[in-house]
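Narrative of accomplishments. A recurring question from our advisory board has been how the design workflow behaves on a single, concrete structure rather than in aggregate. To address it, we present the structure tokens for one chain from the evaluation set, followed by the sequence designed for it. No filtering or post-editing was applied between the two.
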């Protein structure tokens, strides 16, 4: 038998099959000798040969656990009915082994009527080692042979001769097929559990990544808005002080050294900000990042276009991050909820502000109610967009109606003096 047991139940079934077949063969031999049958010697010899063949197959590991446990073990090893029907080397040898057992059993049937009881363990072996389309007919043929043997030896027709083998065959088939169905259901649940565990791991990883990116953005914004801006102001003030001092003034050298130190630290702060910038902004401008985003989002059912309006100017890193994240969130809502065929993103540079417009021709929603998008897409819904814009002194507006698409616009202020300071920084 297959030594690779899968559960205590299948191991117990396998041992029961050993004991059942061995006991029945012993019963045939003992009754033949005890009753002084005409062919007692041949019956004993054939019984020993049958036991030897069965034992050889058991030691070779050809058949699996008895009955339903056998098929469950085979299923657990991903051996499908079709694969078993293809008669690979291992299954071919097992089938030949089973054929030899059945041939020896037929010989015993000819010599002794008691051999018909050996049909019961053979039922389970046939249902395991043969595909279902062959196993069930083999069980029926085996039951018919047992009934025929009883009629021939006893020279009488009794109800028990028919009911016993047929009832045993029905019980074997129902047990094996029923356990098979239970095992398939168990396998489906196991696969669902494995998939759930994998999904939870992916979700945890996504949450960690999102948290890391959010913290990077926060640090970049804080460094840019505090340290970098402060060092830039110090550098400008020291440059102005250096211009007002005479060239031979003792303080000139100290002011110059202080300005150079501020400039070096400003460069270091900028490098920190660049290192903490979102990956989409590391290799180009905001416009380039938005264009790549549109290209990634475009698919068979949705076409996304990008346009730039006005004369582009260099934006502070927090502005670029806010606009990029808003565009990502808006497109995510479009893909998930809008069922749109077209969407457009426009980045507009104006004298005192920069604006981002996202428009789609989807099914729209009622902004005064509780739209689907309002529930967010993992933390970047409309409330998050409004909060991000408000943090930078901007506004977010949404125009939509059921069946008329959606238009989202975020506007961030760029005052003249502030823009000059950003350029100097």
């Amino acid at each position: 038998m297959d030594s690779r047991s899968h559960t205590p139940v299948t191991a117990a079934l396998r041992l029961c099959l050993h004991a059942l077949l061995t006991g029945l063969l012993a019963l045939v031999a003992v009754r033949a000798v005890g009753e002084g049958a005409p062919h007692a010697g041949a019956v004993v010899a054939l019984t020993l040969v049958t036991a030897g063949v069965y034992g050889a197959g058991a030691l070779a590991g050809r058949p699996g656990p008895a009955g339903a446990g056998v098929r469950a073990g085979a299923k657990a090893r991903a051996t499908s009915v079709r694969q078993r029907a293809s008669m690979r080397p291992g299954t071919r040898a097992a089938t030949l082994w089973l054929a030899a057992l059945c041939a020896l059993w037929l010989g015993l049937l000819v010599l002794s009527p008691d051999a018909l009881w050996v049909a019961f363990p053979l039922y389970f072996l046939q249902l395991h080692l043969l595909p279902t389309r062959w196993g069930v007919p083999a069980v029926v043929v085996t039951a018919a042979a047992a009934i025929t043997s009883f009629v021939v030896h006893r020279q009488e027709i009794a109800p028990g001769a028919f009911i016993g083998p047929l009832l045993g065959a029905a019980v074997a088939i129902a047990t094996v097929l029923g356990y098979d169905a239970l095992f398939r259901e168990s396998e489906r649940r196991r696969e669902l559990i494995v998939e759930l565990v994998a999904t939870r791991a992916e979700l945890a990883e996504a949450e960690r990544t999102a948290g890391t990116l959010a913290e990077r953005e926060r640090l970049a914004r804080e460094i840019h808005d505090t340290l970098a801006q402060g060092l830039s102001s110090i550098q400008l003030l020291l440059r102005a002080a250096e211009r007002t001092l005479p060239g031979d003034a003792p303080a000139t050298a100290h002011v110059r050294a202080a300005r150079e130190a501020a400039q070096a630290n400003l460069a270091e702060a900028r490098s920190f900000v660049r290192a903490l910038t979102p990956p989409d902004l590391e290799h180009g401008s905001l416009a380039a990042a938005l264009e790549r985003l549109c290209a990634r989002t475009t698919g068979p059912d949705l076409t996304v276009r990008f346009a730039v309006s006005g004369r582009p100017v260099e934006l502070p890193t927090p502005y670029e991050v806010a606009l990029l994240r808003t565009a990502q969130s808006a497109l995510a809502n479009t893909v998930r909820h809008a069922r749109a065929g077209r969407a457009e993103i426009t980045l507009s540079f104006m004298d005192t502000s920069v604006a981002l417009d996202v428009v789609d021709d989807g099914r729209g929603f009622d902004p005064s109610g509780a739209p689907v998008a309002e529930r967010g897409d993992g933390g970047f819904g409309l409330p998050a967009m409004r909060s991000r814009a408000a943090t930078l002194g901007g506004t977010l507006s949404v125009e939509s109606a059921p069946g008329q698409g959606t238009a989202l616009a975020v506007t961030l202020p760029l005052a003249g003096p502030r823009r000059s300071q950003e350029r100097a920084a």
